């Protein structure tokens, strides 16, 4: 480690320890109350990189419990802006041209300042108004260093997380990958282009354009959006907007992103959704979700399972996309999902929140050692945010009311859309090859059963505790028999009055009684301590 990294390592450990997380590194520390709140405060004290790490963690309910997710969602980018000299230097380093020569005007006071970048408004030479998002210098290297330090801390303390469903080191490597994508602004530019292409035929949706010649790894220049936030009730009233129609359009747009495109906005809070000239306009494409064909199909199946009262379909859908991280008791999983679905099916659709339902499915999967894909957990969080936005502007609109007819009308998405011919060919070949082997395998199994050579392999689960208790019980029974035998033998010796004596009492008999008394006392104490009299 370089000297600067060593100093940073010490600071991180010191700050985490001061907020009650010393137990992770040293067992002599005790866990404290208010840990979720303290974690947020620790991240705020550790600066911009940890604020960003915390914001990423707040999108991952598969990594942290709900109380931590809720607290980290409060993290705000209250970061002082970089000097205008620094901003201009970053721009010049990227394009070899100064802001003065490139723009007609460039406002030196930032519109906003966040942990990774800050935004300035500007005017192009042709008169178009734009915003320029410029990355802080060295932020990528700082984030990589801080996450690498956290990985080192976790490596030292792996035993503390032995029962975790997800390996914390693996989780941190995932976060490192996420941050690397976020600090490369080319990814955000590509996201905007892809999102615009997917939604080019949606008349009520607007996506800002990008100035590609003035965008790079560390700079994005894009159209400046005028309008107001989607939950600005005053402007909605002044503009005579039909809020129910707006809520439906917002829900339909998001359902299309999820179920048809498989490419959705990962942070749909009111600050990222504007109303521009009567159209819905999404901004900030740094966090986007990508759903595979399998996950899209599964989501279609989940929603149609509710519509058709099909519990087995829901269970099959969950097992299709889930990653098993340990023993899965299928009976328990079936019972948990059965209870959940029956609960929902007995409720009016008007009372169902799709985000809450998916969150409960996620919790059931987690309790049954099944990990759901990262983008599925991002989807759940995004739906929670979006349902809150829709509820604030159109309380009578429920996403589930729109989702079920949408799935029924677009059921083709779940079967043949985006079918890859090469993938189909590979799976077909594999299926045919296995099919040809099936008759010989059946004959082989039959021969084994007839000749008595078939073996049934059983694996016990969670039997270690009962077996241990049985062993203790047997040991106590044997001890009791030995004590009884010693007492009977000593009584016989006393009655026969043989062997050396003291005060005319045989020493062998007395010794036997004392030994039996000691063993009996020891046995009684062990039974009392076990609490099982």
Task: Report on this structure.
- Belongs to the protein kinase superfamily. ADCK protein kinase family.
- The chain crosses the membrane at residues 477-496, 502-525.
- One of its GO terms (molecular function) is kinase activity.
- Keywords: Kinase, Membrane, Transferase, Transmembrane, Transmembrane helix.
- Residues 74-316 form the ABC1 atypical kinase-like domain.
- The chain has 533 residues and is an alpha+beta fold.
- Among the domains are: 3-79 and 140-182, no CATH class; 227-420, no CATH class; 472-530.
- The protein has 20 helices and 15 strands.
- The protein has helices spanning 3-21, 35-45, 48-57, 66-72, 84-95, 99-102, 139-156, 168-182, 185-198, 233-238, 243-261, 293-308, 311-321, 330-345, 354-367, 374-393, 399-409, 421-451, 464-496, 507-530, and strands spanning 103-106, 112-113, 117-124, 129-135, 205-206, 219-223, 228-229, 263-265, 273-276, 279-282, 288-290, 323-324, 370-371, 501-502, 505-506.
- The strands form five sheets. Strands 1, 2, 3, 4 and 6 form a five-stranded antiparallel β-sheet that branches. Strands 5-10-9-7 form a four-stranded mixed β-sheet, covered by helices on one side. It has a two-stranded antiparallel sheet with strand order 8-11.
- Strand 3 (117-124) and strand 4 form a beta hairpin.
- Helix 1 packs across helix 7 and helix 2 packs antiparallel against helix 3.
- The chain starts with a helix and ends with a helix.
- Residues 412-433 have low confidence and may be disordered.
